[in-house]
Amino acid sequence: MASVANVTRVAVVNQKGGVGKTTVTLGLAATAAMRGARVLVVDLDPQANATSGLGVAGAPRSVDDALAGAQPGSMAQSIEFSSWERPPLRSIPRVAPSSPLLAQREMQLATDPVGAQDRLASALQGIDADLTLIDCPPSLGLLTINALFAATHTLIVTEPGAWASDGVDQILANLERVQARRNGLPELVGIAVNRVGRTRDAQYWHNELMATHGDAILPAVHQRAALTEAAAQSLPIHALTRPGAEEASIEFADLYDAMWDRMGHELSISGVA
Q: Which stretches make up the AAA domain (predicted)?
C-alpha cells in the first residue's frame, strides 16, 4: 500500500450532495472503533453533519482555525473526542469539527497562489491515528482538493440513479489529475454505492454502476431508517437497537473489510483510546 509517513487517510468524496457521504463516513468510523482502531474524522463540510453525528457541538476551535494558520500540525489544537461511548465501541473516535466559516475559507484559499492545496496536509502533520477519514464537502472545490492532497486513499460514495455514473466519472478525472501531481496518490479504494433501495429502479441503476465501473464497486449499503435515526441521535449505528441497525452494521463491516482488502493490508492498530 502506498502511504504518506505510514499513515492511512481516506478522503470520502462526491461532488453531489445528498448521496449519504457522511453516513458512510460515520458507519466506517463506527466499524473501525468497534475493532479498537484509533479513528479521527476530519469534517471538511461546512454543513458539519459529521461533527453533529459524532455528538460534538460548540467546540472552541475547528478545522477552519487549523487551515487558517497553515502551520504544520495545527490540527492537533482543534481535535475533540466524540460523544460516542464504549461499550459497544472499543475506542472512542475523535473529530476535527467543521464550522460554517469553512465556506469562506474556501474562497480565501483561492487567493493563495502558493500552497493553497496543501493546507490540510500540513495541518495534519504529526497527528497520530490508525485511520483518518476526511468527510469532504459536496463539491470539487479547494476544500476537496485539499483532502485529495492530504489523503493516501480515496473512497467515492454514490447512490443508484440516472446520473450517478457521470458524477463518478467527473471525480475520477479530477482524481487522476491529483495523482499525476502526487506520484499516484491518493489511491482509489473503490466506489461505495449507498442508499440502495429495494425497488426495481434502484436495482437497475445499481447494476448499471457495476457494469460501468466493474471491480471498483464495493459492497453496497442499503437505505435504512436506522441510519438516519443513528445520525439524528448522535449515536454509532452499532449502539442502536431498532430494526435494521444490525443489518446496517453488518453491511458497514463488509464495506470496511473490502476496503482493506483493496489496500492490501490489515489496519495496524496501535492501541485502544
A: 10-183
For helices 164-181 and 142-150, the axis angle rounded to 10 degrees is 60
DSSP letter at 72 equals T
Specify the amino acid at residue 188: L
CA distances from 138 to 142, 208, 231, 272 (A): 11, 23, 18, 32
CB 8 within 8 A of CB 131: yes
Residue bearing cell 499525476: 180
Distances (CA, A) of 20 to 35, 61, 107, 128, 182: 23, 26, 25, 27, 28
Task: Give residue-wise pLDDT tens across range 6-31.
Answer: 689 999 998 877 788 999 999 999 99
Q: What is the pTM of this model?
A: 0.93
Structural domain boundaries of the chain? 9-263
Over its C-alpha atoms, the chain yields an Rg (Å, rounded) of 17
CA distances from 37 to 91, 249, 273 (A): 6, 16, 8
Q: Residue 75: what residue type?
A: M
Dist. CA 94–CA 91, nearest whole Å = 9
List, for residues 125-137, the tens digit of each pLDDT value. 999 999 999 999 9
Kindly tell me the burial class for residue 70, based on how many C-beta atoms sit within 10 Å of its own C-beta (0-12, 13-18, 19 or more).
middle
What are the two backbone dihedrals, phi and then psi, of residue 252, each rounded to the nearest 5 degrees? -70, -35
Sign of the Cα torsion 218, 135, 263, 177 reads positive
Burial of 243: CB neighbours in 10 Å, binned 0-12, 13-18, 19+: exposed
Q: Is 195 left (phi over 0), alpha (psi -120 to 50) or beta?
A: left
Homologous superfamily, domain 9-263: P-loop containing nucleotide triphosphate hydrolases (3.40.50.300)
